[in-house]
Specification:
This protein has 10 helices and 2 strands. It has helices spanning about 20-30, 40-50, 55-70, 75-80, 85-90, 100-115, 120-125, 150-160, 165-175, 190-194; strands spanning about 5, 10-15. Strands 1-2 form a two-stranded antiparallel ribbon.
């Protein structure tokens, strides 16, 4: 028996997706879909770090504000942010005003600006597990919060100078960016990805 629930359109979905309209759209159109590109992955990495300790809906609803505040998550642009930019961000009501997370976002951009084009994409995707080794989850309790791969990804990113990326954050990144497919077995979004 699966935990999937029928949405307003009658289609079965992961239960978390039905709590708000914003979640339905995010779940159906984004979560678990492959994301590539250094800037796109940097954005997801930053947003997952900002989410730490908060609900994802808080971040999702502020994503336009984050994109505006952080120059569309263009790594080179954020790497050039000054102390004045950081102070501006601390006063920006469109984002989560957490000094440590803002500092990490800018510091991570500075690290990544020195990487070769495509290096972040290649590194993150190198930790994607073989999909054949992962049965589709039937229940929410079948979905882990941390895996060996997310722990290894976290350690590798930290060794390379990336901050605010523990194993749980790394696994949330892997889920959001399609490295793993944690849609429940009879979820309409999982069927769409086959």
């Amino acid at each position: 028996m699966s935990d999937a629930l029928a949405g307003p359109d009658g289609a079965l979905r992961c239960p978390w997706a039905l709590s708000t309209e914003d979640y339905v759209s995010y779940h159906d159109e984004e979560w678990g879909r492959p994301v590539h590109g250094d800037d796109a992955l940097y954005e997801r990495l930053c947003l997952e770090a900002f989410q730490s300790g908060l609900s994802w809906i808080t971040i999702l609803r502020r994503r336009p504000g984050f994109r505006a505040a952080f120059a569309g998550f263009d790594i080179a642009s954020v790497a050039a942010f000054t102390d004045a930019d950081k102070e501006r961000l601390l006063g920006d009501p469109g984002i989560i005003r957490n000094r440590a997370k803002i500092e990490a976002t800018v510091a991570n951009a500075r690290v990544l600006a020195d990487w070769a084009p495509g290096e972040l994409d290649e590194l993150i995707w190198s930790f994607a597990p073989d999909p054949g080794t992962r049965p589709a989850p039937a229940k929410l309790s079948d979905v882990p919060a941390v895996t060996d791969e997310s722990t290894a990804l976290s350690k590798t990113l930290k060794k390379r100078g990336i901050r605010f990326v523990g194993p749980t954050t790394a696994y949330a990144l892997m889920q959001a960016c399609g490295l793993v497919d944690d849609h429940l077995v009879d979820c309409v979004a999982r069927k769409d990805t086959l």
